[in-house]
Specification:
single chain, alpha+beta, 5-stranded antiparallel beta sheet, 10 strands, globular, 67% helix
């Protein structure tokens, strides 16, 4: 697989580089203007200062915002928020990307309804800015949707410069998704417009992007001979223009890409020279994302030269700067590559932590799904019917490749862990045997000494001296044991740190409250792990016809339970999302079979309780299936129950299992609850008895008139009082929805 990190992000800003006399001219015009014209002049000054002094750009943007709000000039207020967003986006210090998102969003709030061309133009600029923000966050579908809407407005008013920006954005997104041929086509369209308009800064940026994308396109093709002459020509032209206009950020990107080119030709000395130049320039303009990319590339040079310690140092720098720039893509690449270095150094715990984190980020980026959605969005403009078919085939092949990759990756990790445990147990047994032999030898020696003392009292002084020598030896061993205890304490702390990090990864995989509420507006989630890592989990999705909610309780808690939740989440993604299976019973049967394939016989009792609720939006019906986890539902003033199948997923049942499902029809509102046994098995301090299902039903009925959010609060209070000072028995989860 080709690996290349290029910082080709190109800002969606007007980039006219005016001389100082133009700024002076605007200052003079500012003194003799009407109120609206004064606001437009302030916005022009903010734009002119943008590439010279961001503080001045902020100052004039805030001045225009204040004046526009005073006279209620909607187009001016929108332009001011766009100017602030541009300034934050270009400065790109820590937190600036979020501030840019707020500013562009405020523009859209102001322009909820547009009447004039200027208002629509400002709306298009805000959407381009937001597309830039979402690109940096790795949310490519949102970026593409905003970019297409902006392009429609540009085309409506024949805005050639704006259209070129939108083409540039499409090229950048395709680059990030690895479709370099489409990226090159988009860049070429933008370049033709910029050359026609004689926009030097944009020409330089597009040439840089074209070179980088063309290089990746050539290297990933099946052609034997690679001709870099066209790529070098693009870089030289881009560098020449960037130096003419003193575009330091552009110069840094070109040096970075020239380093990548040299590195791909195994000219590491030349590559490091270009990377060092890129770092120097990027530091001068505080380009965090560019720094992260270049540090990544430097680390890869040292990795290829087998200098793994230097590689790790630069990966650490890349992580710091990528985190500051809020770039999920750079974080994903850095963690993924660093895990390989850790593995080569036999640091398997660190390698596994990085691999988990990079996989979580990859799921967020979800390149294949993004590319499919983006292709669908842009099909009206660029993609013919035969390209759709090709994309579909490529998607299916990629899904199969990812499934195989996940499976083999998991099996490889499992084999490595089993091997490590076997080696550890073997070494412990050897140490124990050696220790026993030493103890036996010492015991014989003491017996001989005792006999010798009785027989030879004249040699008492010699025996005393021997005992003193032994005492010294024991003292030295005691000191050694204390040192070993300190080392064990350090390793224990490192293990705790890894568990904390694993917790953050598990939380990343679970849906957020916002994602839950997008599917069910009124719902509750009571989620209380027994320890830092949980064996309980929940999963949610929706399609055009269905809303699906899953509640699960995996065997055990802590690390084993968390590992099972990750396997369960991956299987739900595969069965429901990839294979589009929406029948709960069929999903349970497929999960049961797949988990049996992934597990060895010695762990046959491990598995999970699982409940799946599927709501058909159009038929007004609910289909439920449960594996040792039932459904409580409140309908027509009565709390009812659907019992679960009597066996769990991959439980120890000798006969063939076949999960069944039940269907509920509803006309009015119905409340549904699913929970793990951690709630009903919790012992009470006063009674030393379990909470049980009946008490749970009574608690829910007592608060059934309340909104689900308040029901969650009351349930939490009831369980806290019941538990008292006793420790929590197991992981707890209860999800409730109003359908």
């Amino acid at each position: 697989m080709k690996y290349i990190f290029i910082s080709i992000l190109y800002l969606f800003l007007s980039s006219t580089i005016s001389a100082q006399d133009k700024i002076d001219s605007l200052q003079k015009v500012l003194q003799n203007n009407t109120r609206e014209k004064e606001i437009e002049t302030l916005l022009a000054l903010s734009q002119e200062w943008l590439f010279k002094n961001q503080e001045n750009a902020f100052k004039y943007a805030y001045m225009s915002l204040q004046k526009a709000q005073t006279i209620k000039y909607k187009a001016g207020e929108a332009g001011a928020y766009n100017a602030l967003g541009n300034a934050y986006l270009l400065r790109a210090k820590e937190g600036d990307i979020k501030e840019a998102h707020k500013a562009y969003s405020r523009t859209l709030d102001v322009l909820t309804s547009t009447k004039t061309e200027k208002e629509e133009t400002e709306k298009a600029k805000a959407m381009s800015g937001l597309a830039n923000v979402y690109y940096q966050w790795g949310e490519y579908k949102e970026a593409t949707a905003l970019n297409i809407t902006s392009l429609k407005i540009r085309e409506k008013y024949n805005d050639e410069f704006g259209k070129a920006r939108c083409y540039t954005t499409s090229g950048i997104i395709y680059d990030a998704l690895g479709d370099y041929k489409k990226a090159t086509l988009e860049y070429t369209k933008a370049l033709n417009i910029y050359e026609k308009l004689k926009k030097k800064r944009e020409i330089a940026g597009i040439l840089n992007n074209l070179a980088a994308s063309l290089k990746l396109q050539i290297e990933t093709s099946e052609e034997g001979n690679i001709d870099y002459s066209q790529i070098v020509d693009y870089y030289n032209r881009s560098l020449k223009i960037s130096e003419e206009i003193n575009d330091k950020a552009g110069i840094a990107r070109i040096f970075n890409n020239l380093g990548v080119l040299a590195q791909s030709q195994k000219n590491y000395e030349k590559a490091l020279m270009f990377y060092e130049k890129s770092v120097e320039v990027s530091l001068s303009v505080e380009d965090k994302q560019g720094l992260a990319s270049t540090y990544n590339n430097i680390a890869k040079v040292y990795k290829e030269q087998n200098d793994l310690d230097k590689a790790l140092r630069f990966y650490e720098k890349a992580l710091e700067t990528a985190d500051e720039s809020e770039s999920k893509f750079e974080l994903y690449i850095t963690l993924k590559e660093r895990s390989l270095v850790y593995a080569e150094k036999n640091m398997f715990s660190e390698a596994y932590s990085d691999l988990l984190a990079s996989n979580a980020l990859k799921n967020q980026l979800d390149e294949v799904e993004n590319l499919r959605a983006i292709t669908s969005l842009t099909s009206k403009y660029e993609i013919e019917k035969y390209q759709k078919e090709n994309n579909k085939l490529r998607y299916e092949a990629e899904i199969k490749r990812q499934e195989d990759q996940i499976l083999w990756g998991f099996l490889a990790f499992l084999f490595v862990m089993i091997g490590l445990v076997a080696v550890f147990l073997y070494r412990q047994n050897q140490l124990k045997e050696n220790h026993n032999k030493k103890l036996e030898k010492v015991n014989h020696e003491l017996q001989d000494k005792n006999t010798e003392i009785k027989k030879q009292s004249l040699e008492l002084n010699q025996q005393k001296q021997a005992i003193e020598d032994k005492n010294k030896e024991i003292e030295e061993k005691s000191r050694a044991l204390q040192e070993n205890f300190g080392k064990l304490a350090e390793k224990n702390q490192a293990l705790q740190d890894s568990i904390v990090y694993a917790k953050s990864i598990q939380q990343t995989i679970l849906p957020t409250q916002e994602q839950l509420n997008l599917v069910f507006e009124d719902m509750m989630l009571y989620y209380r792990p027994k320890s830092m890592l949980s064996g309980d989990f929940y999963w949610i999705t929706q399609t055009q016809d269905y809303r699906i909610l899953v509640c699960g309780d995996c065997t055990g808690h802590g690390v084993p339970g968390a590992m099972m939740t990750m396997m369960a989440t991956a299987l739900l993604n595969e069965i429901i999302l990839a294979h589009q299976i929406y029948e709960p019973a069929k999903v349970l049967n497929m999960m049961d079979e797949k988990i049996k394939l992934y597990k060895s016989d010695r762990y046959g009792a491990d598995g999970m309780d699982l409940a799946i609720l599927c709501v058909n939006k159009h038929k007004k019906e609910i289909v439920f299936a449960g594996a040792k986890m039932g459904l409580l539902y409140y309908q027509d003033g009565v709390m009812k129950q659907i019992k679960a199948n009597r066996y769990a997923i991959s439980g120890l049942v000798s006969e063939n299992k076949q999960f069944t499902q039940e269907t509920l029809e509803y006309t009015d509102s119905i409340l549904c609850y699913m929970h793990s046994d951690g709630i009903i098995d919790q012992f009470g301090e006063e009674t030393n008895k379990k909470f049980k299902t009946n008490r749970l039903e009574q608690t829910l009925l007592q608060n059934i008139h309340l909104p689900l959010a308040e029901q969650k609060t009351q349930l939490g209070k009831t369980l806290t009082i019941w538990k008292g000072e006793l420790s929590q028995t197991d992981d707890m989860i209860l999800v409730g929805v109003r359908v």
